Amino acid sequence: MRFSKLAAAVSLVASVAALPTAHAALITFEGQSNAIYTAAINRAGFLIGNVAGDEQHFHEITSTNYGLPNNGTGILLNDRESRIYVEEQSGADFSLLGVDVAAALGNAPALGLTIEGFLNGSSVGVFNIASLGTGYTSVGALFGAVDRVVFDGFGNGGGFVLDNLNVGDAVNGVPVPATLGLALGALFAAGASRRKTR
Hints:
The protein has 198 residues and is α+β, with helices and mostly antiparallel strands. The chain has helices spanning 2-17, 176-196, and strands spanning 25-27, 34-37, 41-43, 46-50, 58-62, 74-78, 83-88, 94-103, 112-119, 122-129, 137-146, 148-154, 160-169.
């Protein structure tokens, strides 16, 4: 009986240590003058791509190209009636702390933008920008704990621009280090009870 408690505690520690963890990053889109993608890309450990079922086509492009809204750096351009998703490559939960958005000027620009967060396949919230302007709008503190974020431009062709995706560790739920501490405490308690009964 004592051995099975100890084995269960060791198993708990091992499973907690194996949990995927997100990480903080500021994702920018530098270094490509106009790269066109038909599959997801990996930036700073996050996958970015078109939602399944949508046309698979987006750009990593210099903001000075094609009359796009200029912020002097590279940007991600979605110039189709399609959605863009962001998720951590290991499937870990993360927070979306901020993003810069704009209309895709001259590229079927969306009238507005919906940003929706998902956790375990369920929507946890929607943020709507009713009108995208000719410049960038910085949006902050969007979602505390999600495993996927979807950007969807609406109206007039649906095109939009993203830059400066600020992602971090999920802020809801029990943090992994705390869970690991509880598991180690259980392991210690199991060992102490074993010594006590000898």
